Amino acid sequence: MPQGLATAAAQGKIALPDPDSMTYFTGHETVVALGRSPGMARWREALFAFMHRNAQRPAAYFSIPWPQVMEIGVEYEI
């Protein structure tokens, strides 16, 4: 992400402020398998929740410096 912003600034498409003073906002969802909802087997809900929990965080995926990340989260029950 920082490299993409620097490239866009070099092409004159955006005005880039000091990269060290930028804050990046990302979202984070937590999936909780409760087994109360009909339509999906409990083991599938648990497997989905496990796979979602082990997914890579957006900051790591986009190579955003951790001290500059503000993560906003929500919890979903399935």
Topology:
Elements: H1 2-10, E1 24-32, H2 42-53, H3 58-61, E2 69-77
Parallel strand pairs: 1-2
Could you characterize the architecture of this molecule?
- The protein has 78 residues and is α+β, with helices and mostly antiparallel strands.
- It has a domain at 40-67.
- The protein has 3 helices and 2 strands, in the order αβααβ.
- The protein has helices at 2-10, 42-53, 58-61, and strands at 24-32, 69-77.
- The protein has a two-stranded parallel sheet.
In short, what is this structure?
This protein is 32% helix and 23% strand.
Strand content: 15-25%
- H/E element sequence: HEHHE
Q: What is the mean pLDDT? A: 84
H/I helix tally:
3
Rg measurement, Å: 18 Å
Can you list the strand order of the major beta sheet? Answer: 1-2
Q: Indicate the overall shape.
A: elongated
Give the N-terminus to C-terminus distance in angstroms.
32 Å
How many extended strands? 2
